[in-house]
Design a protein that fits this description.
The chain has 133 residues and is mainly alpha-helical. It has helices at 2-22, 37-61, 65-83, 99-128. The chain has one domain. The chain is built from four helices and no strands.
Length: 133
């Protein structure tokens, strides 16, 4: 069960990393050819999601339950911070009807909540697992 949850965690983290660039990305370039502030939020989310993907992969590959649990806790904290990137940590466009507010921000928040829940479950399972002799 712990491997399945960890694989789902890895998949959701990778989906957030790819999705923020391909599916629910921020606003496009302006007519003047410049990026808006929401593009920075997109890049931050992609980088943090890449880090969460790496942590989830390490958690899956490690045999040491305590260390894997620490990586799970770090993944949960990283996801919680990532949920606040669009709009709170990095300012976005002024109008709520723009793509960054209407598509990217809700998708990032939902994915991050799912990642937090999965990472906490995986971390608890890894911290409480019995060592085999």
């Amino acid at each position: 069960m712990k491997k399945i949850l960890n694989i789902i965690l890895l998949a959701v983290s990778a989906a957030l990393c790819a999705g923020v660039k391909l599916v629910f990305h921020a606003c496009p370039k302006t007519d003047a050819g410049m990026w808006m502030h929401c593009h920075d939020a997109e890049n931050w989310v992609c980088g943090l999601a890449g880090g969460m993907t790496l942590l989830a992969l390490l958690m899956l590959l490690l045999r040491n339950g305590k260390l894997a649990g620490v990586f799970g806790a770090l993944t949960a904290v990283c996801a919680a911070v990532t949920a606040f990137v669009p709009g709170k940590i990095v300012k976005m466009c002024m109008m709520d009807s723009m793509r960054c507010h209407a598509a990217m921000k809700p998708a990032v928040i939902v994915c991050c909540i799912l990642i937090v829940l999965l990472a906490v479950c995986c971390a608890v399972m890894r911290f409480t697992e019995k060592t085999e002799n």
